[in-house]
Specification:
Blueprint lengths: L6 H7 L11 E5 L2 E3 L7 E2 L1 E5 L4 E5 L1 H4 L8 E4 L4 E4 L1 E6 L1 H5 L6 E2 L6 H11 L8 E6 L1 H5 L5 H6 L7 E5 L4 E4 L1 H6 L12 E5 L5 E7 L2 H8 L4 H20 L2 E9 L5 H10 L6 E7 L6 H10 L10 E9 L32 H13 L3 E6 L2 H12 L8 E4 L8 H6 L3 E4 L7 H5 L2 H4 L9 H6 L4 E3 L10 H8 L10 H7 L2 H6 L17 E4 L16 E6 L2 E5 L4
Parallel strand pairs: 1-6, 2-7, 8-15, 9-10, 10-11, 15-16, 16-17, 17-18, 18-19, 19-20, 20-21
Antiparallel strand pairs: 1-4, 2-3, 4-5, 7-22, 11-12, 12-14, 13-14, 22-23, 23-24
Helix pairs in contact: 9-10, 11-12, 12-13
């Protein structure tokens, strides 16, 4: 049902309709409001003040004194209301950007199909490089010809670089290797590996940070790219609002490529539709003294009215398990040729500790990618060195040593998970050749939750789909590793996420005095089987009481 149109909504939708005055308050009633407030878990009515904060919440009788004839009234017709979702780990700009190229291949297809599609992409744009994404690493490794030779067979006169589905490797042809100055004498960069054949020649596969050797050549700063990044930020806003996300952390801001300026431009023009916290990328190859000074100079906590803050640092400690680049305590049973038997480091433990200690003093919170059990342990050590300064988190957390489980709570470290189909029981069997029985202990969500650690859920969009409802379904579908109930999953995507983003006093639950960041759903997910939760649709999203998305069905 469409509520009576308010002036705020009219202006937001760009209508020329004139309204005499905006109602001072808005009443949402006849709903099922799950507040994520332990003192008052459920309500049926809520009054939103003219400043976008919650003036009253409870039953119709509880809020009646805040309602008069000028109040805008919205009949929810029994629909479920939740606090707006807060995605603490998404790649909003990258996921929405055309800079990575528009040559998309599907990981589930075979190599001949990829080559056919890449060949078809050639000539569709006039850029120097052909860029794309989506292939599956191990399918290429099973071929007799090298990945370089395979690409050369369809495109040899133009540099081609295709990003793997997880973003942790690149597939290059000979022309791209040449322009990236990669040959038999090129050393592996910090945090990366150039896969080589028996003669030492590059095969055309670059693991982890080695991919930046190509991307830095393919995407040099330019005014044209600045506009591409800005448009990506704008496109990402619509995706966030449609998924009910009212707060987000962009988890990898390449500040040397113009990403920061794109976000700042959108914020200055009041074009953001979600409260946004940026995580500045810590480049593993830069001089430490110079980079630390640069990062500190970009710190910006904003003010009470700001939708954009620059208060986090994104580190990679290691890579990923299926590339055998995640850093492990014990060697891989099988690892890729040229990769250390225990995986690699983007930042050594010593460097990570120094960066964390100095940047925490400057006000930053650390957002640390750590997948292997050694990487997780090193990240905890680095956070311990900050002496309690900051709200730091470790993201992915796929393998954790038993001795490190209690350290999350002891050090107040947030465990940030992205449960996906990669972690079903069937999928984990595919990891066994690399790490053996350790595969079955991956993604210990329930264990960390029961230890008392603060747990959040996030998407890692666009590695995974953006929908919080889909991620919550996944978090409840992992057997004994699952979160215990839907209430825990919702809290992980709302109030605990708000704590991570330093805004739990203003958002994350629906309480008097907090901002009216909320979402209306077409189904009551508390009444659904777990496998149906992800099919639920967002009907209405409010940010500070203002509409940022409305489905035609509402």
């Amino acid at each position: 049902m469409r509520p009576t149109t308010s002036l705020a909504v009219v202006l937001l939708l760009g209508s020329s309709l004139a309204v005499a005055a905006e109602p001072s308050t808005t009443l949402l009633h006849n709903g099922k409001i799950y507040t994520v407030n332990a003192a008052q878990p459920w309500a049926s009515a809520m009054v939103i003040d003219e400043d976008g904060s919650i003036a009253a919440i409870g039953s119709a009788e509880d809020v009646a004194e805040y309602v008069d004839e000028e109040t805008e009234k919205v009949d929810l017709e029994g629909r479920l209301v939740l606090p707006g979702f807060q995605d603490t780990h998404a790649h909003v700009l990258d996921a929405s950007s055309e800079a990575q190229g528009d040559c998309k291949v599907e990981a589930a297809d075979d190599v001949p199909q990829w080559l056919q599609e890449i060949k078809a992409c050639n000539g569709q744009d006039d850029g120097e490089w052909l860029l794309g994404w989506g292939f599956s690493l191990h399918s290429l490794l099973d071929e007799q010809k090298t990945p370089r030779e395979l690409l050369d067979s369809v495109i040899s006169d133009r540099p081609v670089a295709i990003m793997e589905e997880t973003s942790h490797s690149y597939w290059l042809n000979s022309k791209a290797l040449e322009l990236a100055n990669i040959d038999a004498d090129t050393p592996d960069p910090v945090g990366g590996v150039i896969l080589r054949d028996a003669k030492g020649e590059a095969t055309g596969l670059l693991l982890d940070n080695a991919g930046d050797l190509a991307l830095d050549k393919a995407l040099p700063p330019s005014k044209a790219l600045d506009e591409v990044y800005y448009q990506a930020v704008l496109a990402g806003q619509d995706e966030l609002a449609q998924n009910g996300i009212t707060s987000v952390a962009d988890a990898r801001v390449f500040w040397r490529r113009g990403h920061l300026e794109a976000w700042q431009k959108a914020a200055k023009k009041d074009e953001l539709k979600a409260r946004t916290t940026l995580g500045l990328w810590a480049y593993p190859t830069l001089d430490d003294d110079e980079q630390l000074a640069e990062l500190k100079s970009m710190y910006d906590p904003g003010n009470d009215d700001s939708l954009l803050r620059v208060t986090q640092i994104k580190f990679y400690v290691d890579g990923i398990i299926h590339n055998t680049t995640a850093r492990l305590q014990k060697p891989y049973a099988q690892s890729l040729a040229g990769v250390d038997p225990k995986g690699l480091y983007y930042f050594s433990p010593e460097r990570l500790e120094r960066y964390s200690r100095e940047l925490a003093k400057a006000g930053f919170d650390m957002h640390i990618h750590a997948i292997g059990d050694q990487a997780v342990s090193d990240a905890l050590d680095a956070i311990d060195a900050t002496d309690g300064q900051g709200r730091h988190r470790i993201t992915h957390v796929e393998l954790v040593d038993n001795d490190d489980i209690p350290r999350f709570k002891q050090l107040n470290v947030i465990a940030d998970f992205q449960p996906s189909p990669y972690f079903t029981a069937a999928a984990l069997k595919g990891v066994e050749p690399a790490i053996g029985a350790r595969a079955h202990g991956m993604l210990p969500i329930r264990e960390l939750y029961e230890s008392g650690a603060r747990v959040t859920l996030s998407s890692d969009w666009d590695v995974n789909p953006l929908s919080p409802l889909g991620i919550m379904q996944n978090a409840l579908s992992l057997g004994e590793r699952s979160l215990p109930n839907l209430e825990a999953a919702v809290k992980a995507y709302t109030l605990d996420a708000a704590y991570t983003l330093r805004q739990e006093k203003d958002t994350g639950s629906l309480e008097v005095g907090k901002q009216a960041d909320l979402v209306v759903l077409n189904q009551n997910i508390f009444d659904l089987p777990t496998k149906q939760i992800g099919k639920t649709k967002v009907l209405w999203t409010l940010l500070g009481g203002e509409e940022v998305y409305r489905d035609q069905a509402f």
